[in-house]
Structures are given as C-alpha cells and as structure tokens.
Design brief:
By secondary structure, the chain is an alpha/beta fold. It has two domains: 1-128 and 309-363, P-loop containing nucleotide triphosphate hydrolases (Rossmann fold); 141-307, Glutathione S-transferase Yfyf (Class Pi), Chain A, domain 2 (Up-down Bundle), CATH 1.20.1050.90. It contains eleven helices and 14 strands. The protein has helices spanning 36-48, 120-123, 144-158, 160-186, 191-221, 240-245, 247-253, 279-282, 285-307, 324-331, 351-355, and strands spanning 2-11, 14-20, 25-29, 67-79, 87-99, 108-113, 116-118, 129-132, 229-234, 264-270, 276-278, 312-316, 339-343, 358-361. The strands form three sheets. Strands 2-1-4-5-6-7 form a six-stranded antiparallel sheet. A five-stranded parallel sheet has the order 8-12-13-3-14, sandwiched between helices. The radius of gyration is 22 Å and the shape is globular. It starts with a strand and ends with a strand. 35% of the residues are buried.
Length: 363
C-alpha cells in the first residue's frame, strides 16, 4: 500500500497545497511552525478518519473558512493471474470533507472513496498506518489514555469487529453518561433506560477486553531485541454485577466507572536481578524510551503480520527528541515499508536513509 500524493484545501495552516511522496522514504523538513505535524495529521485523517491532534472538527478547518478537504491517491500492489505474472497497481482516491459550524453547515466529517460516500468504519480500511510522535515517548509516564491508544492504534486496523465494537461502545457510553447526569439533576432513575445501554456496553466492552488481552499476550510472547519488558493488562471488567456495584458511586462521579474506558496497561522492566519492576517507578528516562521504541517495533510487526501488508509509517519530529543511540534504533524501522518523516533539520536523519529519500522543504 502506497500513498502517492495528498491535496490539502483549507486544512489548518494550508490554503491549497499538493504533496507527492516517494514509494520508499519521504523526508519533510521545516521549522517548528511550518506545518509539518499538520501534514502528518492530514495523512492520519486520510487513513483512520480521525485527527490525532484534536477531536473538534472546526479546529481542522483553516481560520475563517467554512470547510476543509483532504484528498489522497493510494496505490495497492497485487499480482494478477496471467501468463507473465506481471504486477498491476490499483488506485483509490480517498477524500475527507470537514465542515465547521456555520449558518449553512453543521460541524462534521464526510468520507469518500472514488467519489462514493463511505462510513468511517469502511473508509478507514484503505490505508493502514502506524504513527510515532514525541507524545508516544511519554506513554509510560503520561495518563492511561495514552496507553489505551497503544491498543486502539493497531486493533482498529486489524480487526473490523474491534473497530465496530469500539465505535458502538463509545456511542453507548456517551448516552449512558448523559443518563447519569439526568439522574443527578432530577434524582430519578429509570432502570429500563439504563438496562438498554448497559446491555450494549457489556456486549461490546467484553469484546474489546478480549482483543486487548490477546494483543498483550502477543507482545509478551515476542522476542525483545531492544530491551526486555513485560506488559500487564489492568482491565476494568464490565458486567451487570459490576455496574450494579458502582451504581451509587457513578452518580456521585457523574460518569460510568467500569469498562474499557478505564483500562490501563502496566509496563515492567527486567532488572539485573532477573526481576520485573514497573518501568514508570524504577526505569530511568533512557530505559523508558527504549521500552517505547521496543513497543513501536512490535506494533509495526503486529500490523504487518495481521494485515499481510506493510502499513505506512509516520515519524513526526521524533529525531529531535532522541539521542544518537535512540535515533539509530528508530532508523532501523525505516526501509521495510513506505515511511514519511518530518524533521526540523535534515542532518538529524541518517545519511543512508537520505540517500534514496525524497526531500520536501516547507517554507
């Protein structure tokens, strides 16, 4: 799978721009306000249907404009059965139209493949991607949402049922939390209303737990070339019994207190005494970053194995955050798939990578 080009119209700081990418490595060079991360976000949006920078559609639209458009050409390599066994490329045009809130529009996103409207769950299967940003380097020390994203980044792309369950679970959770707010305001609880949403949460939540545990098991079984680490799934089981148990507490908290939205992942390091200790408490900053690099490599490996194709690898300004040893480890990820790298300085990039890379300079 190859992203050939992308066209941006009124997307964030871009008025009207077109970018063309190498089938191997493309390096985007620019200063910190040139729009490098916005470009990476547009590619992520074209892949997943979501921005990794914001959940608000209006923030994706250039200031004072009503809409933004992201349009990309994707080529898929596959073999056809003919006497010469030649390779053929099939192209798809992916498009995301974002509207901001105005008198004529309601804020939202619409998705198209070859000019045909698609649901996000369908749209997001055309261009698999693995994103690596400086935010990932803080996965150990930051909050649980960053570690939950570690699951969702890959499982949404490798299992359609997971993607659908996560979508349905998120919608049901929003409705159930609205009911909790209603109970807090009125003091009246209608059990029949809760039962409907509880059933949806339990059914989809249990599937999310199952796939997350399987992914954890996969990671733990893989050899660790960079650093020996172990993951523990701290999952918040959802069931009728647990929802009933926290019934009164959630009224006070104003939100549902059990389920996948409360999941966490504990990351342990093997010590010199052959024991495992929590990386957050006992690992140095250098060790923590090695763990993150190891986990990103395993995410990449998982995607390749389960998709039977290499995802597009997006490295957004990672090299400015790492020392030389870590840079060399990340550089080893490049080459097995199409890769787009952003950087403030070209000299941060390994010379062997630059040798065959397409370099785009942003002014």
């Amino acid at each position: 799978m190859t992203l050939v080009s992308i066209a941006l119209q009124q997307f964030r700081n871009y008025q009207l721009e077109n970018f063309y990418f190498n089938h191997g490595v493309t390096v985007i060079v620019g200063h910190n306000t040139a729009g490098k991360t916005n470009l990476i976000d547009s590619i992520h949006l074209l892949s997943t249907g979501r921005s990794f920078l914001t959940e608000k559609e209006e923030e994706l639209v250039r200031f004072s404009e009503d809409f933004a458009r992201v349009k990309g050409k994707v080529e898929e390599d596959f073999k056809i059965e003919d006497p010469k066994n030649k390779e053929r490329r099939e192209s798809n045009i992916l498009e995301v139209l974002i509207t901001s809130e105005s008198t004529n529009h309601r804020a939202g996103k619409r998705f198209f493949v070859n000019d045909t409207a698609k649901r996000r769950t369908e749209f997001s299967s055309y261009l698999p991607v693995l994103l690596f940003t400086p935010m990932d380097l803080e996965i150990i020390s930051d909050g649980p949402s960053y570690r939950r994203n570690f699951f969702d980044q890959v499982l949404e792309q490798t299992d359609n049922d997971y993607k659908l369950s996560l979508t349905q679970y998120t919608k049901a959770l929003r409705q159930r939390n609205a009911l909790i707010d209603k109970v807090r305001e009125t003091g009246v609880r209608v059990d029949r209303e809760f039962s409907y949403w509880d059933e949806i949460l339990i059914r989809h939540g249990q599937y999310l737990h199952k796939l997350r545990q399987e992914f954890i098991d996969y990671v733990n079984k893989q050899p660790k070339e960079i650093i020996d680490c172990f993951l523990l799934y701290d999952h918040s089981i959802i069931s009728e019994e647990r929802l009933e148990k926290y019934r009164e507490a959630e009224i006070g908290a104003g939100v549902t207190l059990v389920g996948p939205q409360r999941d966490d992942m504990l990351i342990e390091l093997r010590t010199i005494n052959d024991e495992f200790r929590l990386a957050k408490a006992f690992g140095s900053r250098g060790q923590q970053r090695l763990v993150v690099l190891q986990l990103k490599l395993l995410q990449l490996k998982y995607l390749k194995e389960h998709l039977q194709t290499a995802p597009l690898l997006l490295l957004d300004d990672i090299f400015s955050e790492l020392d030389e040893g870590h840079i060399n480890l990340v550089s080893e990820m490049v080459g097995g798939q199409q890769t787009i790298i952003t950087t403030t300085h070209e000299e941060f990039i390994n010379k062997d990578i630059l040798l065959n890379a397409r370099v785009i300079e942003l002014n």
